[in-house]
From TrEMBL, chain A:
<protein>
    <submittedName>
        <fullName>ABC transporter permease</fullName>
    </submittedName>
</protein>
<feature type="transmembrane region" description="Helical">
    <location>
        <begin position="197"/>
        <end position="217"/>
    </location>
</feature>
<keyword id="KW-1133">Transmembrane helix</keyword>
<feature type="transmembrane region" description="Helical">
    <location>
        <begin position="50"/>
        <end position="71"/>
    </location>
</feature>
<dbReference type="GO" id="GO:0005548">
    <property type="term" value="F:phospholipid transporter activity"/>
</dbReference>
<dbReference type="GO" id="GO:0043190">
    <property type="term" value="C:ATP-binding cassette (ABC) transporter complex"/>
</dbReference>
<feature type="transmembrane region" description="Helical">
    <location>
        <begin position="237"/>
        <end position="256"/>
    </location>
</feature>
<keyword id="KW-0472">Membrane</keyword>
<keyword id="KW-0812">Transmembrane</keyword>
From TrEMBL, chain B:
<dbReference type="InterPro" id="IPR003439">
    <property type="entry name" value="ABC_transporter-like_ATP-bd"/>
</dbReference>
<dbReference type="InterPro" id="IPR003593">
    <property type="entry name" value="AAA+_ATPase"/>
</dbReference>
<dbReference type="GO" id="GO:0016887">
    <property type="term" value="F:ATP hydrolysis activity"/>
</dbReference>
<feature type="domain" description="ABC transporter">
    <location>
        <begin position="2"/>
        <end position="237"/>
    </location>
</feature>
<keyword id="KW-0547">Nucleotide-binding</keyword>
<keyword id="KW-0067">ATP-binding</keyword>
<dbReference type="GO" id="GO:0005524">
    <property type="term" value="F:ATP binding"/>
</dbReference>
<dbReference type="Pfam" id="PF00005">
    <property type="entry name" value="ABC_tran"/>
</dbReference>
<protein>
    <submittedName>
        <fullName>ABC transporter ATP-binding protein</fullName>
    </submittedName>
</protein>
């Protein structure tokens, strides 16, 4: 019994220590974010990699989710004569929850894994040490541009995802479920409130920081060899996904609990 | 001059350096020899602050290593890494000119590229290599690009970490000759770590042997064969029998 409790205690301590290390890393990132030098070229490259090149996967995820959501709401709503609420629920569902969460998770899958694998490989092949010997701080050169790009681009991706998701629901509703196009759009616009959009974009910013920060942290702290790179990549995606879902719960509470 | 004074470093229960004391005179080429895992790379990395010693002092020209402006301190060094450590997302010329494109030594891109091409030429690579990515080069070419990067900003002190590992004997000879020429030409202080004895004889002014976490012997390369130290003797002749255990 004592051995079991000891094992649980050790696990809890390990988790708390990991949380502490991530918090210190986040603090260091913030410190380097506000002190020069700033690597503009790296930032632009990160904008391209994280933002622009993620658009296709974000768009496809959103359009299929919006379409499926419209079908589900229509099927469920028909049971108690509420099928007409499809535009409102699709809009609310996409903007408040599914848009930010699914974009966040897609970014965790696509961007966090890529950042973690790239930086871990750089560590294993001594490229991080080489950066230091070339008078370049790895936090400033590798972490800050990526985290800043996540903060800037993921809210935009979420906004695009929200619009495309609503468009997916619209297409299904108008083409398959017999909704009037103009009425559908009018209901969508009337029902959405500014707070819905603001909460969506704030969630996007938070998820962007989480996804990029966890990629950088795991990469910088990877073990040796191919196994170390693989473990860093896996743990970065796991941690980013769980933290995104936890942050989503907290932010939903902050915005909509009243 | 670089001075190691009773430097200790352990990783967990593995005590790698157990009191390294060594002087590397200014303008000389010091080669540290020793078996794999004896802490040669750790000693180099301690100077650059990549690894922090547990105790002891490292002085560079009389001042503690890393004290004061870190960027200015590191600007005095160039380093050739064992695997090249080239940035694979950047073309070759940007690797070579990395230090010249940012920080205190920053200059216009065209000028930086010109210097990079000149340094590539210095290590025997043609200008058409400049726009290729490191992954498109052979191991020997990558090593030469790493060498060009190490000397691009004309540092006062250059570190070479296993410069010939993984190269065929002819390419190893080319790299050894290049290192010797560059060190003499630039008047730089050089520290090389290797267990390739042909490298030692080609590069070194002085040799130090690291074993058991301490410097077992140090002296001019000409005296290495007659050192009288059984560890040095076993190592330089590559004998399986002797005081150094073959299985470690």
């Amino acid at each position: 019994m004592l051995r079991v409790l000891g094992g649980i205690g050790a696990q809890v301590l390990a988790i708390l220590a990991a949380v502490g290390r991530v918090a210190i890393y986040a603090g260091d990132t913030l410190r380097h974010l506000v002190t020069p030098p700033f690597y503009g070229r790296e930032f632009l490259n990160a904008l391209l990699q994280i933002g622009w090149l993620s658009l296709p996967v974000v768009g496809l995820t959103a359009v299929f989710t919006g379409g499926a959501l419209a079908l589900q709401i229509y099927a469920g709503g028909s049971r108690f004569d509420a099928a007409a609420v499809v535009p409102q629920i699709v809009a609310i569902g996409m903007v408040r929850e599914l848009g930010p969460v699914l974009v966040g998770l897609m970014i965790a899958a696509r961007v966090t894994s890529s950042i973690a694998a790239e930086i871990a490989t750089m560590k294993v092949t001594e490229q991080i040490d080489a950066l230091v010997t070339l008078s370049t701080h790895p936090m400033k050169y590798l972490t800050v541009p990526r985290v800043l790009a996540g903060l800037v681009t993921v809210p935009l991706l979420v906004g695009v995802g929200d619009v495309i998701g609503i468009f997916g629901g619209y297409q299904v509703a108008v083409r398959s479920l017999g909704f009037n196009a103009a009425t559908y759009l009018q209901n969508t616009v009337d029902f959405l409130e500014p707070l819905d959009v603001i909460s969506s974009l704030v969630k996007g910013a938070a998820f962007g920081v989480i996804a990029t920060l966890m990629g950088c942290y795991s990469g910088m702290n990877s073990g040796r060899g191919a196994q170390g790179v693989g473990a860093a990549t896996k743990s970065s995606v796991e941690a980013a996904s769980v933290l995104i879902l936890a942050a989503n719960f907290l932010l939903t509470g902050v915005f909509f609990s009243a | 001059m670089i001075r190691f004074d009773d430097v200790h470093k352990a990783f967990g229960s593995n005590h790698v350096l157990r009191g390294v004391t060594l002087d590397v005179p200014k303008g000389e080429s010091m080669v540290i020899i020793g078996g794999s895992g004896t802490g040669k790379s750790v000693a180099l990395k301690c100077v650059l602050g990549l690894v922090v010693p547990d105790s002891g002092v490292i002085l560079v020209d009389g001042k503690p290593a890393g004290a004061g402006d870190r960027e200015a301190f590191l600007a005095r060094f160039g380093m050739l890494f064992q695997g090249g450590a080239l940035f694979d997302s950047l073309p070759v010329w940007q690797n070579v000119a990395f230090r010249l494109m940012r920080g205190a030594l920053k200059r216009p891109a065209a000028e930086a590229k010109e210097i990079a091409i000149e340094k590539l030429r210095r290590v025997g690579l043609s200008p058409d290599v400049a726009d290729r990515l490191p992954a498109e080069l052979s191991g020997g070419m990558q090593k030469r690009v790493g060498l060009a990067r190490a000397i691009a900003a004309e540092p006062e002190i250059i570190f070479f970490d296993e410069p010939t590992t993984g190269l065929d004997p002819i390419m190893a000879g080319v790299i050894n000759d290049l290192i010797r020429e560059i060190v003499v030409e630039m008047g730089a202080t050089a520290m090389t770590i290797t267990h390739d004895m042909s490298s030692v004889r080609a590069i070194a002014d002085r040799v130090a042997m690291l074993h058991g976490g301490v410097i077992r012997w140090t002296g001019p390369v000409a005296e290495m064969d007659g050192s009288g130290d059984p560890y040095v003797d076993q190592f330089i002749h590559g004998r399986a029998e002797g005081p150094i255990a073959a299985v470690r």
